[in-house]
Amino acid sequence: MPGSKNTSTNEYERSPVPADAQKGPGKFWGMYAGEHAAGTEFMIGPLFLLNGVTLQNIFLGLLVGNLLAVLSWRYVCAPIATKARMTLYFHLEKIAGVKLVKFYNLANGVLFCFLAGAMITVSATAVGIPFQIEMPGFDAIYPNSATFVIIVLAVGAVIALVAARGYDMVARFANVASPWMVLVFLACGLIALKQIDAANWDGLNEVWTQSITVAQGGKDIPVMGFWSVALFAWFCNAAMHIGMADLSVLRYARKPSSGWASASGMFVGHYMAWISAAFMLAAQIKLSGNTTPNPGIMAANAAGIAGIVCVVVAGWTTANPTIYRAGLAFQAMIPGSSRTTMTLVAGMIATIAGIFPAFAFKLLDFVGFYGTVLAPMGAVIFADWYFARRANFTPFAAEKSRMSINPSVLLAWLIPVAIAVYFIKFIGISSWFCILPCWIATAILHVVFSKILIKKRN
Amino acid sequence: MKILPLLSLIGLALTITPAFSHLLFDLSEQTTFTLMAVGMVIWFAAATPWLAPKKEDLDTSTQDHI
């Protein structure tokens, strides 16, 4: 987000990154591994089990999906990032116009608030352990006790207040915590595997299938098949790769091959950590019959105090920067407003969302929805970059025509997203099936509308 | 100050080694949890002084932490 940070990395927000500021691939491998081992992983893995994903599909689906995500970073995002060397917002501003970027930023901020809310719920599940309160069940939409609400409010207030003080301290703490968190995820998986007590693949498969049967009340219904898992894994970060948000990161890369570094995030955070977290729930179901994916309790069973601290830290280091960024998005919408006030507003919205456990328990749907709304803007950048000359329309039209809102971008974005939202909400299509069609439709519509609506300029 | 990175590594080793030992060599669950907690304390105590002051090199402002 423009003007967002107090670090050295914000100095090229409105100019291409010069050669002497560019970095080698090593920096990106570490960054991606850290950013994608977060609080969300504690929820996503167990949700696969509860959705009846077979053991084979979780291993193969995640392998294929994560590989496709890495290829998207490498071949869709990184080539443009290393040629244009601009942030997402500056690049988009030149195509879509200042006001439309603010609107996109606001959508981003609102969705970030709900994501942060889910992470506040995750942290609260760990903070609540000493109070021995009953946590909401998997189907719960509303909180189940006043104590749970008070814990969420307390956790949310602390996170919002720290976020309001600035980004730097949290980023530094997250940098310290992330190598340790990655190992705790792995340790949790190994200990859970021991608790499952399977001698071989068949034994593991049997426990896994039994866990699904128990979780689904005697049935064994695969709500998510191979392609659901693969597409979810591919597109859960759609806003980052095909949505081009990582232009901001990869503009510092010397070569597009740094896009391969996303493999560290995908195969550590979205493969090892998701499978570990899923095993934690399978072990919990085997040992106690408890099917609620409560990250605090699952981690306490798998790693003791270190597990509980990991859940609190993972939730906090995820929610905190997310609230900070949402606050910046709100600040950009209201001229003259203070960053502190807007961060507190974002924190308040996130905390209220956190009271409702449904946001955490429906995280798969929410993440898919988030990708459906935001990723198509990347298609605009992609089509503008590769097809403007071939299709004979003006690239960077908003900058050249001095438009604050480029109507071709607005329509190309909103029409497919509106149709997708209809399919998700009213037809019941899973959100991760809508992201790629939406992205392709937006790219085509941007080309068509740019030719029709925007007068060609040199 | 060079001892701190070494101590940090010991902290990380104490975080992961007990889990492997539990799985492969039947180290008791309680001992595993205790060693992991000790590893956590050592890691944060030893890594914070040298890792936290490091300046962030990359613009991670758009990351969604999913």
Q: Mind telling me the C-alpha Rg of chain A? A: 22 Å
Oligomer: heterodimer
Rg of Cα set of chain B? 15 Å
- Specify the helix fraction band of chain A: over 70%
Uncertain segments of chain A are 1-9
Q: What general outline of chain B do the C-alpha atoms trace?
A: flat
Major sheet description of chain B: none
- Mean pLDDT of chain B, nearest integer? 91
State the share of residues found in helices of chain B, binned by percent: 55-70%
Termini Cα gap of chain B: 35 Å
Which secondary-structure class do the elements of chain A indicate? Answer: mainly alpha
Please give the number of β-strands of chain A: 0
CATH architecture of chain A: Orthogonal Bundle
Low-confidence stretches of chain B: none
Order of helices and strands of chain A: HHHHHHHHHHHHHHHHHHH
For the termini of chain A, the CA-CA separation is 29 Å
Biggest β-sheet description of chain A = none
Shape field of chain A: globular
Task: Give the largest interface pair and sizes.
Answer: A-B, 61 and 37 residues
